[in-house]
Amino acid sequence: MLKPKCNCPELERVDCRLENKELWDRFHELGTEMIITKTGRRMFPTVRCSFSGVELDARYVALMDIVPVDVKRYRYAYHRSSWLVAGKADAPAPVRLYMHPDAPFTGEQLRKQVVSFEKTKLTNNEMDKSGHIVLNSMHKYQPRIHLVKLRPDYHYNGNTPVINNVEYQQFRTFVFPETQFIAVTAYQNQLITKLKIDSNPFAKGFRDSSRLTDLERYEM
Amino acid sequence: MLKPKCNCPELERVDCRLENKELWDRFHELGTEMIITKTGRRMFPTVRCSFSGVELDARYVALMDIVPVDVKRYRYAYHRSSWLVAGKADAPAPVRLYMHPDAPFTGEQLRKQVVSFEKTKLTNNEMDKSGHIVLNSMHKYQPRIHLVKLRPDYHYNGNTPVINNVEYQQFRTFVFPETQFIAVTAYQNQLITKLKIDSNPFAKGFRDSSRLTDLERYEM
DNA sequence: GGGTTTCCACCTAGGTGATAAATT
DNA sequence: AATTTATCACCTAGGTGGAAACCC
């Protein structure tokens, strides 16, 4: 279900903005890829969003899930530098709802601060027990953000509201098409690799300026 | 006020255990010192405690504060390797209540997990705006742990219950005398320095085995 | 001189893509 | 042949005490 939904009139007034849209756009133009590993890999770029129109004293939970865009499997044609459809999708793993670790938020907090899903991790391990989001490699996905407005009597487990299915709550879903990506176990498009290296601080060690050739090393 | 207090019969049944008492005892025997800096320094050892006798479905907040043990100022006599009273205490900074960042906890969580105050930081900067605990150097202090039972209608600011004064709440205070220490800007007792180096993983670089003498370096 | 601050080398902890080996 | 896994060097981020400089 890619279409944004909302089952609560008060949430119709809420707006969600993708804070780092420019960066996502640059990846999207090339065809974003996200690495998935057995132990879980962070997404880069991170989904960072801000909310307006929320009620000051209400309490909210922000969640992310990632759903298949189509029922296709893809492969990368190196000689053509493009993605091709390789067949029908594998059986999808059950979609996991990832609750933002700082949730719940008051409306006041949501108005001030950016909600960053930097800790979200992606895995290809269907047996994963760490709560990471399980995806199939070589399949195309769409992240979604859900904002749930908590009822005052909401049942808590410590800080963590028990949200099993957003359908049962007052919620609204936001979808940013520029955050679509293909899950991979190794990067396919070299331009994506380069953009990741140039924009992710943790990959700084692979940037051109910091990688000396043997000759450069010798000349020092 | 060093004496443990409790204003709530249900909390009388609660017990609090200092999980790393053995380590604290080793420091206490030598006279624990804690570094304070302008930007804030973690405590080592950390106060790690577990609670039993809490109600499964109730919600609790754990807090720490650090209060003066006496109205004295101390100095360290190197030639005697001991602490001496150096006069009357300086004017104390207002005691700051440090709420555990993971609070609130359900009783269920408290029964299972250890509450670790590892992120608590100490500072000598009276103007500190980071929420660190402000202490006077060369003064003796006693950390205290407060367990507050939240009323169901408790007013929240996001995850963070607004606790201005434990006196207004249902609370119980726990005091472990072995966690007393003298605040310092530089270690005085060399035995304390050695025990810190040997027991704090972050100080591993100063352990004997990893510190080579010039001779050892030469012989490699 | 006693106490404090600053800067540093050396750690812990964990996020990167490259690479080669393993798998299918 | 295509894809996945394990390991690695190289980062970010930040917690240590040492040592010298700096106060007062």
UniProtKB/TrEMBL annotation, chains A, B:
GO biological process: cell fate specification; heart development; positive regulation of DNA-templated transcription
Pfam family name, one: T-box
Keyword Transcription applies: yes
InterPro entries per the UniProt record, alphabetical: p53-like_TF_DNA-bd_sf (IPR008967), T-box_DNA-bd (IPR046360), T-box_sf (IPR036960), TF_T-box (IPR001699), TF_T-box_CS (IPR018186)
Signal peptide residue numbers: none
Assigned GO CC terms: chromatin; nucleus
Domain T-box: from-to ranges: 18-208
Entry's localization field: Nucleus
GO MF terms, alphabetically ordered: DNA-binding transcription factor activity, RNA polymerase II-specific; RNA polymerase II cis-regulatory region sequence-specific DNA binding
Main location (coarse class): nucleus
Keywords: DNA-binding, Nucleus, Transcription, Transcription regulation
Protein name per the record: T-box domain-containing protein
Species whose genome carries this gene: Oppiella nova
